[in-house]
Design a protein that fits this description.
Layout: H1 2-12, H2 17-30, H3 33-38, E1 41-43, H4 51-60, E2 69-71, H5 79-88, E3 97-99, H6 106-116, E4 125-127, H7 134-141, E5 152-154, H8 162-171, E6 180-182, H9 189-199, E7 208-210, H10 218-227, E8 236-238, H11 245-255, E9 264-266, H12 274-283, E10 292-294, H13 302-312, E11 320-322, H14 330-339, E12 348-350, H15 357-365, H16 371-377, H17 386-395, E13 401-403
Parallel strand pairs: 1-2, 2-3, 3-4, 4-5, 5-6, 6-7, 7-8, 8-9, 9-10, 10-11, 11-12, 12-13
Helix pairs in contact: 1-2, 2-4, 4-5, 5-6, 6-7, 7-8, 8-9, 9-10, 10-11, 11-12, 12-13, 13-14, 14-17
Amino acid sequence: MEAADAALAAAVGNAEGVGAIAALQGFLDAAAPATVVAVANLDLHYRNLTDVHAEALSALLPRLAGLHRLVLQGNKVGGAGATALTAALPRLTQLQQLDLSYNGIGYAGSAALASALPHLTQLRQLDLGDSIDDASAAAVAATLPCLTQLLHLNLRNNSIGEAGAAALAAALPHLAQLQLLDMGDNCIGDAGAANLAAALPHVTQLRQLDVDNNKIGAAGAAALVAVLTDHKQLQQLDLSHNYIGDSGAAGLAAALPYLTQLEKLDLDNSSIGDAGAAALAAALPHLTQLRVLSLYCNSIGDAGVAALADALSHLTQLQQLNLSMNNVGDAGAAALVAALPRLTQLLQLDVSWNRLGDIGAAASTADRSDRTQLQQRNAEVTAIAPVAMTAVKTACPKGCTVFV
């Protein structure tokens, strides 16, 4: 199988468009039948394939009856091309991964895909990021219950709203093996988050949940975090770029002690202040496997960072810590400096754009939307005083990259 895949990859090389299709056909015509049947991977990502090329590809795919992985990410396949491709998919009964992300298949392509999905009963991974819309999501969701082996579902950046989220939530209880659900960069809102929350208790194998940048407020966050206690195996959670606030952070903090396998927690730009940071800090000692903690662009000041610093000693596996663009002053920095030597695995620390020292104070009082201009006007200005900069760098373990 590996030899057949290598032979196909060598034959296609870096060809694009019609050249890629011609190279594939040349391989299929020249290779021994046993080699063709053994091909498991066809990766044509970012090859400038259009609808015309997709239609030609659809005529060739049935010859690859043993295909496990079909990747067409980042092409220019629209509804017509997707419709042609999906006509061939029922012949690929061994397919385990289908990636149509970063195309533009739209509703017509999604409807055609939905008709083909019930035939792909071995599918483990489905990637449709930046390819569909709210109505399309509902069409796809209607056939997801057929994919009982699905482990990975990527629907990022698709303008999915409440209706699409509700349709997907109705399908989730049938996906009992699902380990990764990426719904980031959509617009499901609080109502969509509540619908997802109602379905998540049925998805007992979930390892990664991404709902970042979804217009979720405190109510939606409360609904989601209330069911997280049932997901003790969760390893990655991304709630960033929502509006969960201190109340949402406090609700999450109540669930965190149950998530002892969590390795990554992303709460960037989540309207969290000192109270929310303190609530999170109380729960952090339970997260002994945490490797990445990101709180970029919140409103955490000295009190919040001091509380977090007290908890850091328990995070012995922490490798990345991002506290940039908050309101940390000298007192918060001092607490952080005292805690940093205990983080022996730390590889990256970002405390840039805070208000340590006189220069930092001037930078932090500027509106965040103006900070790019401020940086351009004063290229020599950093957001942290030299003394504090040295203290932070000195406190970090050897080999740690520090952004100040």
